[in-house]
Design goal:
Blueprint: E1 21-23, E2 44-47, E3 53-55, E4 60-68, E5 73-79, E6 84-93, E7 102-103, E8 108-112, E9 125-132, E10 135-137, H1 144-156
Antiparallel strand pairs: 1-2, 2-9, 3-8, 4-5, 4-7, 5-6, 6-8, 6-9, 9-10
Amino acid sequence: NYEIGDIGSQARSVVESTFRLVTPYGFTKHASEDKFTDSKLLGMVLHAPIGGDIVSQWNGVIVATYDDLSSGAQTIKIYHGNSTYTIYSHVYPVNGIYIGAVVSTGEVIAVAADTSKAEPDKPNHILYQIKLNGEFINPLTIYGSRGKQIYEKWLTSTSYDNVVEEGELY
């Protein structure tokens, strides 16, 4: 078991030095479409400058790294104990990040890839996901009231309606 550390207002951004939501969990509508799509985003998209440091949310062990076909980069999956995983996509692992490596809260695990060719309509970004007991959860929920404020700020800065399904947080 690993100690995952602080949650709520003390949870950290996994993109070093910034926390800007590009697309929230549950999002099902694209900027060029007037209607909702059938697929739902099972994580949140965070702005990340090309080459920007990506850090581990909590202590854990790397359990998978694999090719990320949408960006041409990689995805890193970390196990934190108690059936909790974090997944970081559109990244390049740094030296020392391999399957079986133990990482600490806030440790740099990767740098952000260039996503401009795959998704030119969005700022450069990573996809950050949390899986708990085999189910994806809204990553903003770990930030408590701060997460709700971030989501509400995103809502007021876009023309989209509330994108989270009924019964889900935020």
